[in-house]
Amino acid sequence: MTLTLEYLGDGRVARWTLTPDGAAREVHEAHHPTLFVGDSVDDLYGRSGGPDPAPPSRDGLSDALRELWSFLDGQEAIERLSVESHRQTFRTAARPLLRVDAASIEAVRMVANRVRQFGQPDTYTCYNVDFTRQLRFCLETDTRAAPDRSARDLRTLHLNFPRHESDIESLPQLAVEGDCVGSSPGETISGVQAALDDHDPDVLVVSTAALVPLLFEAADVYGVDLKLGRRDGYTTLAGESTYTSYGTVGHSPARYTVPGRVIVDEANSFFYHESGLEGCLDLVERSGLPLQELGWASIGRVLTAMQIREARDCDVLVPWRAWRPELFKRASTLDDADRGGTTFAPDVGLHEDVHELDFASLYPNIIRTRNISPETVRCGCCDTDDVPGLDYSVCDRDGYLPEVLGPLIDARSEIKEEIPDVAGDERERLEAASSAIKWILVSCFGYQGFSNAKFGRIECHEAINAYARELLLDAKSTLEEAGWRVVHGIVDSIWVTPADDREQRPLEVVAAEISAEAGIELEYECAFEWVAFCPTRNGESGALTRYFGKRRGEAYPEAGLGDALKTRGIEGRQRSTPAWVEEVQSEALRVFDETRSPEAVCDVLRRHLRELREGGVDPSALVVDNRVSKDVDQYSMETLTVAALKRAQIEGSGLAPGQTVRYVVVDADARGASRVRLEFEAVPRYDTGWYEDIAVRAVESVLAPVGWREKEIRQYLSETKDETLASF
C-alpha cells in the first residue's frame, strides 16, 4: 500500500502509507535500482527459440557480456554485478543476462549510456532502464502502488493561483479551497500553513506546479516555517521542457514532490482533468503506477505501465530504446497497409429519422478477438493469410497485448452496466473510472505505431486498421441489404436512415447479426430526430467530421442544450472559440431545431451582434485560447497570436512553445502588441468587426447544411430590420 514515495539518497527510500488519522513513514534501506544487459537476440521479434538457459554464474555469460562485466566492475555507479536468467522477448526462452544493481536512481541511466558506448550499437541491449522512479520501486519490491483506503478516503486541498503570475508580491491572489487566506505575501504563507495544519491533506491539487517553489521562496523571505509536505522541503523531479510529438508542440511544466503528500498539477494532469481523483485512483489500481506519477502521466505512459506489469508476469524484460525495423514488404503491400480507418463521404444536408450504431471499443476488441500483438503478427512460425487485404499471418499462440487489454474492456463494460442503477457519489465514481479506462482503450491502437512504444510494432497498427476497414464495410453492406441507407460512417460509427421504397428489417436484429459475425458488438447508440452534415468550408463536398443532430426524446434543460444535441467539429467544440461565440452558436442551434428557419437563426445572430456593437458583451466572454508552437521571434507572420506573445513579453509573463496564450482582440487592424489585450489585463474596448466575423462563421456552420452560406447570411442581415418572433 502506497500513498507516495521519496528517494532519500544512499539507497534509502521512504514509503508513506495512509493511517486512520494521517500517514505513516517507513524507510527502506539499501534499495538499489536494477537494470539488465543482454546480447542482441537472434531475432528481434523472437521467432527463434534462442539458446537453452544457463546456470546463473559469471561463466554462464557470453564472451561479450563477460567483457562488459570486467569493464563495469569497480565503477562508483555500480553497487554489484551478478547473473540472472530472464526472457528478452515474448518468444525467446530465458537466458543468462548481466544484472547491474546501480548505486542510486540517478546512476541507472548513466550506466546504460556507458554500456551503449562500450560496444558496437548492436552488441548489447539494455533492459529496465527508464522506469519512472516510484513505479520502479513498486516493481522491484513488489509493493502495491495504490493507497489503502479501507480506513479512510484521501483528503485533498486545492490551491489556485493565476498562471500568469510568478512573483512573491502576487501571492495574495492565491486561493485555498476557493478562499483568500491573506492580504499580503506573509499573511498568505501563514494562511496556507494554517490550512495545511487544519486539513492535513494527502493530496495537494495545485492550479500550477510553479506555486511550489514560489511558496517556499516567499516563506524564506518572510520568515515563515512552511511545511507543504509532512516534513520539511521539496524536491524538483524535472524542469520544464518543450517537446514535439507528431507535428504538435507541447510543453511540460516542471514537476515537484513534497514528503508525505501527492502533488497533482491541474495544468499538467490529463487524467485528473478528464476523470477527477477517483478516475486517477482507479487507474493506479489497474496500472500499478503510483498516484504521484499518474497525476502527470500521459495516456501512453499509463498504458506502458500496464504492459510492463504484464511483461514482468511473463518474465520478459522491458527494452530501453527498442529498435524494431519494419519487416520487408512489397510496394503494393505498403500502399495497402498505409491507410487508416474507413470514412464514408457524408450526405450533406439535413436528414430526418437517423440512427447511429457504434462498434463497442472497436480497436481494443480487434486486438483482443484477432489476437493482435507484436509477437503474433507476422510471427514467422505460421504460414497463413489472416489480415484482410494485407495477408499478414497472426499466430495461434495467445498474444500478450490482448491479455493487457482484456480486463480493461471487461471492466468498462461492467461499469457501464452498473451506472444506470446507481446515483450520487457511487455514480460519480463509476463514471470517473469508465472515463479513465476509455482513454487507455482509445489510445492503445495508435500506440502500436508509436516509435517510442516499448512493445509497439507498425505491423500491429496496420493489421488493426485492416480489420477495422473490413468490419465497417461489411456492416454497411448488411445494413443496406436490410433496407437501410447509410448517410455517413467514421471508422467505428455508422449513421443510417430508412431507404425510400424499401421495407426495413429491425435495426436491433440487424445489429445483432453483424455483432455475431464480427465477434464485436455493434451497439445501438441512439436515434436522432434529425442530423445535419456540414459541407467543407469552401466547397460543397461533405466535411468528414463536422455534423450536429438532435437526439430523439431528449429535452432542452433550462440552462442550454445539454445532452439533447450532439455536435462534432463545429466552433462550439473547438478550444480556441470564445465563450460568446459558443453562446451564439448554441442559441442558433436551438432555434434551428425549433423552426428549421434560416431567417429565424439569422435573427438570433442579429440580436447578439446588436449587443456586441453596443458594448454589452463582457470581455471575459471574448477570450481567444491558442496554443503557441514557436518562440515569438521564430514567427514570420504578424498574427494575433504573435501579437499576444509580444504583449506577454512586455507584461513579463513570456510563454514557451507548447503553452497556451489567452487574449481579447481589441484592434485586429493595428500593428504589434496593441492589437490584443491579455486575459488578465483591463480591456478598454474590443474589435467589434473581428468578433462579428467569427460569429457569422459559427452561424454559417449551422445553416450551411440547408444551403445558407456567409453570403446569404450577410445579405439577409443587411436587407432586414425586424426580427421574427421565432428567434426569441
Automatic annotation (TrEMBL):
Q: Name one GO biological process term.
A: DNA-templated DNA replication
Pfam families (UniProt xref)? DNA_pol_B
Listed under catalytic activity are: DNA(n) + a 2'-deoxyribonucleoside 5'-triphosphate = DNA(n+1) + diphosphate
Give an example GO molecular function: nucleotide binding
Per the UniProt entry, the signal peptide is: none
EC number annotated for this UniProt entry: 2.7.7.7
Classification via Gene3D superfamilies: DNA polymerase family B, C-terminal domain (1.10.132.60), Helix hairpin bin (1.10.287.690), Palm domain of DNA polymerase (3.90.1600.10)
Q: Which residues form the DNA-directed DNA polymerase family B multifunctional domain?
A: 333-486
Enumerate the InterPro entries for this protein: DNA-dir_DNA_pol_B (IPR006172), DNA-dir_DNA_pol_B_multi_dom (IPR006134), DNA/RNA_pol_sf (IPR043502), DNA_pol_B_thumb (IPR042087), DNA_pol_palm_dom_sf (IPR023211), DNA_pol_type-B (IPR050240)
Keywords, A to Z, come to: DNA-binding, DNA-directed DNA polymerase, Nucleotidyltransferase, Transferase
Q: In which domain of life is the source organism classified?
A: Archaea
From the record, give the transmembrane residue ranges. Answer: none
Q: Which family does it belong to?
A: Belongs to the DNA polymerase type-B family.
Please identify the protein, giving its name as recorded: DNA-directed DNA polymerase
Q: What organism does the record attribute this protein to?
A: Halorubrum tropicale
